[in-house]
Amino acid sequence: MRVPKNIRNIFFILSVLSISAGSYAQDSTILLLNGKTVQGIVKENNGEFLKYEFSKKKNRFVKEIDILRVYSFTAAGKETIVYYQDTMQGNVYSVEEMRMLIYGEVDSDKNSKGWPFFVGAMAIAGGHYLFDTYGGDDEATPVNENRFFGSAPSMAVVVVPFVLPLIGAKIKPRIKSAQTSDPMFLANEQYVIGYQKRSRAKRLTNTLFGALAGTAAFVLADIIAK
User: Does one domain contain both 120 and 63?
Assistant: First the structure.
């Protein structure tokens, strides 16, 4: 049966609207000050909170986010900046300075490596536990055995996993031009601050978890050995 022309036109219009709505939703993002993005369509901005709608498992939800956490939101390719400089609220950077700082955070998330610090901290903390429990005179150990796990661990094995992250975070990250979206960004102070700040945070987290994992692994090995 042939579909009437007016019905076909209605279906065509509905399909175009559906495609437009889909592309609009995909293009609707909220850029946070920490460089993260949230997918969602902003429905309301009351000056304190952004109310936005997002999809999850074919369902629609509405949430609010503190506007002090937001730099801008984009809909249909148009960006609306909600961030503004206000030292009383802790917004010490200008709009463009904050944008460059966010660029630095984003590039750091993409390119800086945290796993070497995880592996290094795991090896150092584990090795420290191994040598800390090597033989020696120890009242807690009835028999003096000159071997690994021959004596009880000292309090140093508790301190080391929390000292290593501070050392790792203190090491100044080096930024290579290949690790940037644009090598010209390296001349911008705020970009470098954002990149290094995020890199240090990543190093601190990875070093902490690596040191805890290394210590835990050798504690388990000590228990098994005894």
Answer: no
